[in-house]
Amino acid sequence: MTVHIEKVDLPGIGVRHDLVTESGRRLAVVRYRDGDRELGLYDADDPDNCRESLHISDEEAEALADLFSASLAVSRLTKLTEETDGLYTEKITLPPDSPFVDRTLGDTKTRTRTHVSIVAIIRDRHVIPSPTPGEILREGDVIVTVGTRAGLDAAARLFSNGPE
């Protein structure tokens, strides 16, 4: 399915972007000239009738964007691994007693030691895509990995216990 988004200029007010869902419902994001934003859900039978609207703060908009991007990234990786035999995606939570807490991702040498790729880190609902070796790991980080089953098991042991 192609995603259909309509842009509606609201003179003197701002801009509204409507996402038309597969079921024909409209979800709108109104961006006011002063920077405020609102979400709107439109009546299925009357696309001009906004059934409910909700003011969204900057922090809430950022949190929603993070939630959607995190779930999309993991969904896309999962779909890729489902299409490829022997390749898996796994989320590994960095335990509080890991020797890598407050150290750089590069210190783990994960790719060299386990042949696993780290594609993202999820921290406090915020996604860090394609983290660099200089990224500091924090307790509770969720490390999104891709590799073979044996490699992912080795990566989980590495993050828990350090190098063997």
From TrEMBL:
User: By its UniProt entry, which InterPro entries does this protein fall under?
Assistant: AAE_transporter, KhtT, KhtT-like_N, RCK_C, RCK_C_sf
Q: What is this protein called?
A: Potassium transporter TrkA
Q: Which Pfam families does its entry note?
A: KhtT_N, TrkA_C
Highest taxon in the source lineage: Bacteria
A GO molecular-function descriptor: monoatomic cation transmembrane transporter activity
List the SUPFAM superfamilies hit by this protein, alphabetically: TrkA C-terminal domain-like
UniProt xrefs under PANTHER family: K(+)_H(+) ANTIPORTER SUBUNIT KHTT
Q: Where is the RCK C-terminal domain?
A: 77-161
Q: Which GO terms describe its biological process?
A: potassium ion transport
